[in-house]
Amino acid sequence: MGGNTFGSSLTITTFGESHGPALGVIIDGLESNFTINIEDLSYQMSRRRPGGNRLGTKRDEQDEVEILSGVFEGKTTGTPVAILIRNTNQRSDDYSPISTFYRPGHADYTWHEKFGIRDWRGGGRSSGRETAARLAAGAIAMQILKSKGVSITAYTTQIGHIKATKNDIGVIKQNLVSCPDMDAANKMEALIDEIREKKDSVGGIIECLITGVPVGLGEPVFQKTEALLGHAILSIGATKGIEFGEGFNCVNFKGSQHNDMMDSTGFLSNHAGGINGGITNGDPIVFRVPIKPTASISLEQRTRDILGNEREIVVEGRHDPCICIRIVPVIEAMTALTILSLWYDQNGR
Ligand SMILES: Cc1cc2nc3c(=O)[nH]c(=O)nc-3n(C[C@H](O)[C@H](O)[C@H](O)COP(=O)(O)O)c2cc1C
Protein backbone atom coordinates (compact mmCIF):
# COMPACT_ATOMS: atom_id res chain seq x y z
CA MET A 1 0.00 0.00 0.00
CA GLY A 2 1.47 3.32 -1.12
CA GLY A 3 -0.41 5.44 1.40
CA ASN A 4 -1.47 8.12 -1.08
CA THR A 5 -5.22 7.57 -0.65
CA PHE A 6 -7.33 8.88 2.25
CA GLY A 7 -10.99 8.40 3.21
CA SER A 8 -13.70 5.73 3.22
CA SER A 9 -16.98 6.57 1.44
CA LEU A 10 -15.24 9.57 -0.06
CA THR A 11 -11.59 9.10 -1.01
CA ILE A 12 -8.85 11.36 -2.29
CA THR A 13 -5.68 10.14 -3.98
CA THR A 14 -2.98 12.77 -4.40
CA PHE A 15 0.05 12.61 -6.68
CA GLY A 16 2.97 14.79 -7.74
CA GLU A 17 6.12 16.35 -6.31
CA SER A 18 7.09 19.87 -5.28
CA HIS A 19 9.37 20.42 -8.29
CA GLY A 20 7.82 18.02 -10.83
CA PRO A 21 5.68 19.29 -13.72
CA ALA A 22 2.40 19.12 -11.80
CA LEU A 23 0.55 17.70 -8.84
CA GLY A 24 -3.04 16.73 -8.44
CA VAL A 25 -5.85 14.78 -6.85
CA ILE A 26 -8.49 12.25 -7.77
CA ILE A 27 -11.64 12.57 -5.66
CA ASP A 28 -13.85 9.48 -5.73
CA GLY A 29 -17.29 9.16 -4.15
CA LEU A 30 -18.65 12.71 -4.44
CA GLU A 31 -22.39 13.08 -4.78
CA SER A 32 -23.76 13.87 -8.25
CA ASN A 33 -25.49 17.02 -9.49
CA PHE A 34 -23.58 19.39 -7.24
CA THR A 35 -22.65 22.68 -8.94
CA ILE A 36 -19.01 23.46 -8.17
CA ASN A 37 -18.37 27.14 -7.49
CA ILE A 38 -15.14 27.66 -9.46
CA GLU A 39 -14.65 31.19 -8.12
CA ASP A 40 -14.75 29.93 -4.54
CA LEU A 41 -12.40 27.05 -5.45
CA SER A 42 -9.86 29.55 -6.83
CA TYR A 43 -10.26 31.75 -3.74
CA GLN A 44 -9.57 28.79 -1.43
CA MET A 45 -6.46 27.90 -3.47
CA SER A 46 -5.24 31.50 -3.14
CA ARG A 47 -5.36 31.26 0.67
CA ARG A 48 -2.67 28.52 0.67
CA ARG A 49 -0.84 29.60 -2.46
CA PRO A 50 2.92 30.21 -2.05
CA GLY A 51 3.70 33.88 -2.70
CA GLY A 52 0.19 34.89 -1.63
CA ASN A 53 1.17 36.20 1.82
CA ARG A 54 3.98 38.64 2.67
CA LEU A 55 4.94 36.53 5.70
CA GLY A 56 5.20 33.23 3.81
CA THR A 57 7.54 31.64 1.27
CA LYS A 58 8.63 33.78 -1.70
CA ARG A 59 7.97 30.92 -4.15
CA ASP A 60 5.29 32.32 -6.46
CA GLU A 61 2.76 29.80 -7.78
CA GLN A 62 -0.64 30.77 -9.17
CA ASP A 63 -2.12 27.36 -8.26
CA GLU A 64 -4.69 27.40 -11.03
CA VAL A 65 -6.79 24.25 -11.05
CA GLU A 66 -7.66 22.24 -14.16
CA ILE A 67 -10.64 19.92 -13.69
CA LEU A 68 -10.03 16.96 -15.99
CA SER A 69 -13.01 14.72 -15.27
CA GLY A 70 -16.14 14.08 -13.24
CA VAL A 71 -17.79 17.44 -13.98
CA PHE A 72 -20.28 18.07 -16.80
CA GLU A 73 -21.92 21.45 -17.44
CA GLY A 74 -20.49 22.65 -14.12
CA LYS A 75 -22.02 19.80 -12.08
CA THR A 76 -20.46 16.73 -10.48
CA THR A 77 -21.47 13.56 -12.31
CA GLY A 78 -20.75 11.15 -9.44
CA THR A 79 -17.65 9.82 -11.24
CA PRO A 80 -14.05 10.54 -10.13
CA VAL A 81 -13.14 14.23 -10.22
CA ALA A 82 -9.50 14.60 -11.30
CA ILE A 83 -7.82 17.95 -10.70
CA LEU A 84 -4.40 19.03 -11.99
CA ILE A 85 -2.30 21.89 -10.59
CA ARG A 86 0.79 22.72 -12.63
CA ASN A 87 4.06 23.77 -10.98
CA THR A 88 5.36 26.86 -12.73
CA ASN A 89 7.86 28.48 -10.37
CA GLN A 90 10.27 25.67 -9.46
CA ARG A 91 13.90 26.56 -8.66
CA SER A 92 15.41 23.12 -8.19
CA ASP A 93 18.98 24.49 -8.39
CA ASP A 94 18.48 25.95 -4.89
CA TYR A 95 18.52 22.38 -3.64
CA SER A 96 21.34 20.84 -5.72
CA PRO A 97 24.16 21.88 -3.29
CA ILE A 98 22.42 19.92 -0.52
CA SER A 99 21.07 17.07 -2.67
CA THR A 100 23.23 14.50 -0.86
CA PHE A 101 22.76 16.00 2.63
CA TYR A 102 19.99 15.18 5.07
CA ARG A 103 18.18 18.35 6.14
CA PRO A 104 17.43 18.31 9.92
CA GLY A 105 13.70 18.19 10.73
CA HIS A 106 12.83 16.95 7.23
CA ALA A 107 11.94 13.51 5.86
CA ASP A 108 15.21 13.28 3.87
CA TYR A 109 16.93 10.63 6.01
CA THR A 110 13.82 8.49 6.58
CA TRP A 111 12.85 8.60 2.87
CA HIS A 112 16.32 7.60 1.77
CA GLU A 113 16.53 4.73 4.27
CA LYS A 114 13.04 3.50 3.32
CA PHE A 115 13.05 3.87 -0.49
CA GLY A 116 16.75 4.01 -1.42
CA ILE A 117 15.99 7.00 -3.64
CA ARG A 118 14.50 10.41 -2.95
CA ASP A 119 13.47 13.43 -4.96
CA TRP A 120 15.61 16.08 -3.22
CA ARG A 121 14.07 18.96 -5.16
CA GLY A 122 12.19 20.91 -2.48
CA GLY A 123 11.32 17.85 -0.41
CA GLY A 124 9.65 16.04 -3.32
CA ARG A 125 6.41 14.58 -2.13
CA SER A 126 6.99 15.42 1.56
CA SER A 127 6.79 19.09 0.65
CA GLY A 128 4.00 21.33 1.88
CA ARG A 129 3.32 21.79 -1.84
CA GLU A 130 1.53 18.40 -1.89
CA THR A 131 -1.20 20.00 0.21
CA ALA A 132 -2.30 22.15 -2.75
CA ALA A 133 -3.95 19.00 -4.13
CA ARG A 134 -5.69 18.33 -0.81
CA LEU A 135 -6.91 21.89 -0.72
CA ALA A 136 -8.54 21.61 -4.16
CA ALA A 137 -10.43 18.49 -3.02
CA GLY A 138 -11.23 19.96 0.39
CA ALA A 139 -12.59 23.16 -1.14
CA ILE A 140 -15.19 21.13 -3.05
CA ALA A 141 -16.03 19.13 0.09
CA MET A 142 -16.43 22.44 1.98
CA GLN A 143 -18.89 23.71 -0.64
CA ILE A 144 -20.97 20.52 -0.40
CA LEU A 145 -20.92 20.65 3.40
CA LYS A 146 -21.95 24.30 3.34
CA SER A 147 -25.03 23.30 1.31
CA LYS A 148 -25.85 20.90 4.17
CA GLY A 149 -25.44 23.64 6.80
CA VAL A 150 -21.94 22.65 8.01
CA SER A 151 -19.30 25.33 8.43
CA ILE A 152 -15.57 24.80 9.12
CA THR A 153 -13.26 27.60 10.30
CA ALA A 154 -9.63 27.25 11.37
CA TYR A 155 -7.60 30.08 12.88
CA THR A 156 -4.31 30.71 14.66
CA THR A 157 -4.45 30.98 18.46
CA GLN A 158 -0.72 31.06 19.18
CA ILE A 159 2.55 31.78 17.38
CA GLY A 160 5.73 31.30 19.39
CA HIS A 161 4.98 32.70 22.86
CA ILE A 162 2.23 35.07 21.65
CA LYS A 163 -1.30 33.86 22.43
CA ALA A 164 -4.66 35.15 21.24
CA THR A 165 -6.76 36.21 24.22
CA LYS A 166 -9.87 37.15 22.22
CA ASN A 167 -11.94 34.87 20.00
CA ASP A 168 -13.37 37.31 17.45
CA ILE A 169 -13.83 35.06 14.40
CA GLY A 170 -14.92 38.15 12.43
CA VAL A 171 -11.33 39.51 12.27
CA ILE A 172 -9.45 36.42 11.10
CA LYS A 173 -9.56 37.55 7.45
CA GLN A 174 -8.31 41.02 8.43
CA ASN A 175 -4.78 39.92 9.37
CA LEU A 176 -2.06 37.85 7.71
CA VAL A 177 -1.91 35.18 10.41
CA SER A 178 -5.66 34.31 10.53
CA CYS A 179 -5.85 35.20 14.22
CA PRO A 180 -9.15 36.01 15.99
CA ASP A 181 -7.42 38.70 18.13
CA MET A 182 -6.13 41.76 16.20
CA ASP A 183 -3.72 42.90 18.95
CA ALA A 184 -2.17 39.44 19.15
CA ALA A 185 -2.13 39.22 15.32
CA ASN A 186 -0.02 42.40 15.05
CA LYS A 187 2.46 40.98 17.55
CA MET A 188 2.51 37.62 15.74
CA GLU A 189 3.24 39.31 12.41
CA ALA A 190 6.10 41.31 14.00
CA LEU A 191 7.50 38.12 15.54
CA ILE A 192 7.50 36.31 12.19
CA ASP A 193 9.33 39.24 10.55
CA GLU A 194 11.88 39.22 13.38
CA ILE A 195 12.36 35.44 13.16
CA ARG A 196 12.85 35.60 9.40
CA GLU A 197 15.54 38.29 9.88
CA LYS A 198 17.28 35.95 12.30
CA LYS A 199 17.15 33.17 9.64
CA ASP A 200 15.19 31.02 12.11
CA SER A 201 11.58 29.80 12.30
CA VAL A 202 8.69 29.58 14.75
CA GLY A 203 5.68 27.30 15.36
CA GLY A 204 2.20 27.80 16.75
CA ILE A 205 -1.26 26.41 17.44
CA ILE A 206 -4.24 26.25 15.07
CA GLU A 207 -7.77 25.79 16.38
CA CYS A 208 -10.58 24.48 14.19
CA LEU A 209 -14.30 24.99 14.79
CA ILE A 210 -16.94 22.92 12.98
CA THR A 211 -20.58 23.94 13.34
CA GLY A 212 -23.80 22.48 11.97
CA VAL A 213 -22.75 18.81 12.24
CA PRO A 214 -25.80 16.72 13.16
CA VAL A 215 -25.89 14.13 15.93
CA GLY A 216 -24.74 10.69 14.82
CA LEU A 217 -21.70 10.91 12.52
CA GLY A 218 -18.84 8.50 13.30
CA GLU A 219 -18.82 4.97 14.62
CA PRO A 220 -18.30 3.77 18.19
CA VAL A 221 -15.08 1.77 17.80
CA PHE A 222 -12.41 2.03 15.07
CA GLN A 223 -14.11 4.74 12.98
CA LYS A 224 -14.50 7.24 15.81
CA THR A 225 -14.81 10.81 14.60
CA GLU A 226 -11.77 11.86 16.68
CA ALA A 227 -9.72 8.97 15.26
CA LEU A 228 -10.57 9.88 11.66
CA LEU A 229 -10.00 13.60 12.18
CA GLY A 230 -6.73 12.70 13.92
CA HIS A 231 -5.67 10.65 10.88
CA ALA A 232 -6.60 13.50 8.53
CA ILE A 233 -4.83 16.23 10.47
CA LEU A 234 -1.72 14.29 11.45
CA SER A 235 -1.22 13.37 7.78
CA ILE A 236 -0.35 17.04 7.14
CA GLY A 237 3.37 17.82 7.41
CA ALA A 238 4.49 19.81 10.48
CA THR A 239 1.46 18.87 12.64
CA LYS A 240 2.57 17.36 15.94
CA GLY A 241 -0.66 16.46 17.71
CA ILE A 242 -4.37 17.04 18.06
CA GLU A 243 -6.62 17.64 21.05
CA PHE A 244 -10.42 17.82 21.18
CA GLY A 245 -12.48 20.04 23.48
CA GLU A 246 -10.54 20.63 26.68
CA GLY A 247 -7.90 18.20 25.36
CA PHE A 248 -4.83 17.80 27.57
CA ASN A 249 -6.31 20.39 29.92
CA CYS A 250 -9.07 17.89 30.92
CA VAL A 251 -6.77 16.58 33.66
CA ASN A 252 -7.25 19.88 35.49
CA PHE A 253 -11.00 19.28 35.86
CA LYS A 254 -13.02 17.07 38.19
CA GLY A 255 -15.65 14.84 36.57
CA SER A 256 -18.32 17.11 38.04
CA GLN A 257 -16.78 20.06 36.19
CA HIS A 258 -15.83 18.32 32.94
CA ASN A 259 -19.04 16.41 32.21
CA ASP A 260 -21.31 18.20 29.76
CA MET A 261 -24.66 18.11 31.53
CA MET A 262 -27.94 18.30 29.63
CA ASP A 263 -31.34 19.87 30.02
CA SER A 264 -34.32 19.77 27.69
CA THR A 265 -32.64 22.31 25.34
CA GLY A 266 -29.41 20.35 24.91
CA PHE A 267 -25.90 20.37 26.39
CA LEU A 268 -25.08 23.01 29.00
CA SER A 269 -21.34 23.09 28.18
CA ASN A 270 -18.99 21.70 25.52
CA HIS A 271 -15.88 20.39 27.27
CA ALA A 272 -16.02 17.26 25.09
CA GLY A 273 -15.60 19.28 21.89
CA GLY A 274 -18.77 17.99 20.20
CA ILE A 275 -18.04 14.24 20.21
CA ASN A 276 -19.01 11.51 22.70
CA GLY A 277 -17.96 7.90 22.25
CA GLY A 278 -16.67 8.70 18.76
CA ILE A 279 -20.11 9.94 17.62
CA THR A 280 -20.89 13.60 16.96
CA ASN A 281 -23.30 15.00 19.57
CA GLY A 282 -24.66 17.98 17.61
CA ASP A 283 -22.58 20.60 19.45
CA PRO A 284 -19.73 22.41 17.68
CA ILE A 285 -16.64 20.23 17.19
CA VAL A 286 -13.49 21.98 18.43
CA PHE A 287 -9.92 20.76 18.08
CA ARG A 288 -6.42 22.25 18.30
CA VAL A 289 -3.24 21.34 16.44
CA PRO A 290 0.36 22.25 17.39
CA ILE A 291 2.47 23.17 14.35
CA LYS A 292 6.23 22.73 14.68
CA PRO A 293 8.73 25.50 13.82
CA THR A 294 9.59 25.24 10.10
CA ALA A 295 12.40 22.73 9.55
CA SER A 296 14.15 24.70 6.77
CA ILE A 297 16.22 27.45 8.36
CA SER A 298 19.19 29.37 6.96
CA LEU A 299 21.25 29.01 10.12
CA GLU A 300 24.15 26.56 10.13
CA GLN A 301 23.17 23.12 11.46
CA ARG A 302 24.99 19.80 11.93
CA THR A 303 24.01 16.83 9.76
CA ARG A 304 25.48 14.00 7.69
CA ASP A 305 25.48 13.18 3.99
CA ILE A 306 24.29 9.98 2.31
CA LEU A 307 27.79 8.48 2.63
CA GLY A 308 27.79 9.05 6.38
CA ASN A 309 30.21 12.02 6.44
CA GLU A 310 29.53 14.70 9.04
CA ARG A 311 28.53 17.99 7.41
CA GLU A 312 27.43 21.54 8.17
CA ILE A 313 24.27 22.57 6.33
CA VAL A 314 22.59 25.91 5.57
CA VAL A 315 19.19 25.39 3.95
CA GLU A 316 18.77 28.05 1.27
CA GLY A 317 15.63 28.34 -0.85
CA ARG A 318 12.24 29.90 -0.26
CA HIS A 319 10.53 28.82 2.93
CA ASP A 320 7.76 29.71 5.32
CA PRO A 321 9.26 31.10 8.55
CA CYS A 322 5.99 30.03 10.20
CA ILE A 323 3.87 27.28 8.65
CA CYS A 324 0.74 28.33 10.61
CA ILE A 325 -0.06 30.97 8.00
CA ARG A 326 -0.45 28.57 5.10
CA ILE A 327 -1.62 25.49 6.98
CA VAL A 328 -4.93 27.04 8.14
CA PRO A 329 -6.84 26.32 4.88
CA VAL A 330 -5.22 22.86 4.63
CA ILE A 331 -6.57 21.97 8.08
CA GLU A 332 -10.02 23.15 6.98
CA ALA A 333 -9.72 21.09 3.78
CA MET A 334 -8.74 17.83 5.50
CA THR A 335 -11.50 18.41 8.08
CA ALA A 336 -14.07 18.92 5.32
CA LEU A 337 -13.03 15.72 3.52
CA THR A 338 -13.30 13.75 6.78
CA ILE A 339 -16.68 15.14 7.80
CA LEU A 340 -18.15 14.73 4.30
CA SER A 341 -16.91 11.13 4.17
CA LEU A 342 -18.55 10.48 7.56
CA TRP A 343 -21.73 12.15 6.28
CA TYR A 344 -21.82 9.80 3.27
CA ASP A 345 -21.08 6.81 5.57
CA GLN A 346 -24.17 7.74 7.57
CA ASN A 347 -26.56 9.03 4.91
CA GLY A 348 -25.23 7.74 1.59
CA ARG A 349 -24.39 10.16 -1.17
C1 LIG B 1 1.27 24.32 3.72
C2 LIG B 1 2.60 23.81 4.20
C3 LIG B 1 3.76 24.55 3.94
C4 LIG B 1 5.01 24.10 4.38
N1 LIG B 1 6.12 24.86 4.12
C5 LIG B 1 7.33 24.43 4.56
C6 LIG B 1 8.52 25.20 4.30
O1 LIG B 1 8.48 26.25 3.65
N2 LIG B 1 9.68 24.73 4.80
C7 LIG B 1 9.76 23.58 5.54
O2 LIG B 1 10.84 23.22 6.00
N3 LIG B 1 8.66 22.84 5.80
C8 LIG B 1 7.46 23.23 5.32
N4 LIG B 1 6.35 22.46 5.58
C9 LIG B 1 6.47 21.27 6.45
C10 LIG B 1 7.18 20.10 5.84
O3 LIG B 1 6.45 19.64 4.74
C11 LIG B 1 7.33 19.01 6.92
O4 LIG B 1 7.68 19.53 8.14
C12 LIG B 1 8.41 18.01 6.53
O5 LIG B 1 8.05 17.35 5.35
C13 LIG B 1 8.66 16.96 7.61
O6 LIG B 1 7.50 16.29 7.95
P1 LIG B 1 6.97 16.23 9.46
O7 LIG B 1 6.98 17.64 9.94
O8 LIG B 1 5.59 15.67 9.34
O9 LIG B 1 7.91 15.35 10.24
C14 LIG B 1 5.10 22.89 5.12
C15 LIG B 1 3.93 22.15 5.37
C16 LIG B 1 2.69 22.60 4.93
C17 LIG B 1 1.47 21.78 5.23
Task: Please provide a written account of the structure.
The chain is an alpha+beta fold and 349 residues long. The protein has a single domain, classed as Chorismate synthase AroC (Chorismate synthase, AroC fold). 26% of the residues lie in helices and 21% in strands. It is built from 7 helices and 18 strands. It has helices at residues 38-48, 108-115, 131-147, 182-197, 225-234, 255-258, 324-347, and strands spanning 5-7, 11-16, 22-28, 65-67, 71-72, 75-76, 81-86, 151-159, 162-163, 204-211, 243-244, 262-263, 266-267, 275-276, 279-280, 285-291, 301-304, 310-313. It has a 5-stranded antiparallel β-sheet. It has a 5-stranded antiparallel β-sheet with strand order 9-8-10-16-11. α1 (38-48) packs across α3 (131-147). It starts with a strand and ends with a helix. Bound molecules: flavin mononucleotide. Residues 48, 57, 106-107, 123, 126-128, 131, 236-238, 292, 294-296, 319-320, 323, 326-327, 330 line the site of flavin mononucleotide.
